[in-house]
Amino acid sequence: MKEFLKRKNIEISVKRYLIDALGAMAQGLFCSLLIGTIINTIGTQFGIGFLTVPVATVAGVDYTVGGLATAMSGPAMAVAIGYALQAPPLVLFSLITVGFASNALGGAGGPLAVLFVAIISAEVGKAVSKETKIDILVTPLVTIGVGIALSAWWAPALGKAASSVGTLIMWATTKQPFIMGILVSVIVGIALTLPISSAAICAALSLTGLAGGAAVAGCCAQMVGFAVMSFKENKWGGLVSQGIGTSMLQMPNIIKNPRIWISPILCSAITGPLATCLFKMEMNGAAVSSGMGTCGLVGQIGVYTGWVNDIAAGTKSAITAMDWLGLILICFVLPAVLCPLFNMVAVKLGWVKDGDMRLE
Q: Do 330 and 186 fall within a single domain?
């Protein structure tokens, strides 16, 4: 069996399924749901006609350019997962159908259903790939068959479970904004820097509202914090690669000296409750934005998109100066000020020394 799994490149491991696959799923979401949301927002805010009018009608439903991208989120996630699992072409292409089915049947928690179903379908497809002389028939039939069966069997329950957990977190945040602001901000921020996908986690849980705002705060504390703290060692290249790229670049350094992580975590424990209690910052855009922080400014675009959506829905009257002040302070100013201050204390205590955050 071990020889067979090795020959088929089926690696049953935490890294393959919870790091590689989850990270790829977030990229699939970014290239479909998130980009579609951004296109719709740009079209609406700048009055660009060809971005706001329907360009296609499918089964009586009108789709804009952004709407078409958003509608493909299930297939995009599944194909991205298959790519991460190094699936052969026939398996990879078959996952388009699997992703569509599992995301649709999973409802609000569709991304979690896609993750589970696509992984199993891809691995089963890889197992049968090129094992028969009619591979072009067998591999797609098996991959799609397994995917559709699991989607019908598991997706509704997985989607409901993920949605329920997300709803519980959001409810708890509205009831206890201080405590939950700290917890959500710290946990999602840590997930952002770890080699897993905070964006995929937020998407799977449909994390929006105040909880989404706290998540954005935590992610920004990590990214902007590390970028500014390590400026002496990494200069402008490090500032950009971490500030609008990812704080995950610091993981090798964190493994060497975990104490360099103290400052961003403390910062997220402060900015999280400030976001929920003082500024009432909600992230009501695409849930994936909650776990993106300042990566491509996606978190901030998500917050702004949420404002626009709330105004359109009549739940918000206008975007206020306090909204903008909160967004700028929570996402940029406070992390850039607090993290270096905390790091100075860590340096004086001998916990951190010059070069500990240098990127290779």
A: yes
Averaged pLDDT of the chain: 93
Q: How far is CA 10 from CA 5, 81, 85, 144, 296, in A?
A: 5, 13, 8, 18, 33
In a domain, 334, yes or no: yes
Mean of pLDDT values over 119-124: 97
Q: Which residue has the tokens 């402060």?
A: 270
Of the candidates 47, 45, 44, 67, the one whose C-alpha atom is nearest the C-alpha of residue 55 is 67
What does the block give as tokens for 85?
């699992």
Q: What is the pTM (predicted TM-score) of this model?
A: 0.82
Decide if pLDDT at 285 tops 80: yes
Looking at the structure of the chain, the number of domains it has is 2
**67: three-class secondary structure by DSSP:** helix
User: Which of 127, 161, 195 is the C-terminal boundary of a domain?
Assistant: 161
Collapse the DSSP code of 258 into the 3-class scheme (helix H, G, I; strand E, B; otherwise coil) and give the result.
helix
Q: Is 354 part of a structural domain of the chain? A: no
Domain of residue 331 covers 176-348
Classify residue 171: in a domain, yes or no.
no
Kindly give the residue spans of alpha helices, DSSP state H, lying in the chain: 2-7, 14, 21-29, 35-45, 49-52, 65-71, 73-84, 89-106, 110-128, 135-175, 177-193, 198-204, 209-229, 231-243, 251-256, 262-273, 298-313, 321-328, 334-348
d(CA 117, CA 101): 10
Is residue 357 domain-resident?
no
Quick check: 196 pLDDT over 90? no
Dihedral of the alpha carbons of 272, 277, 278, 284, in degrees to the nearest 10:
70
Query: Which residue among 135, 161, 187 closes a domain?
Result: 161
User: For the purposes of burial, counting CB atoms within 10 Å of the CB of 107, is it exposed (0-12), middle (13-18) or buried (19 or more)?
Assistant: middle
* Residues 202 and 59 grouped into a single domain: no
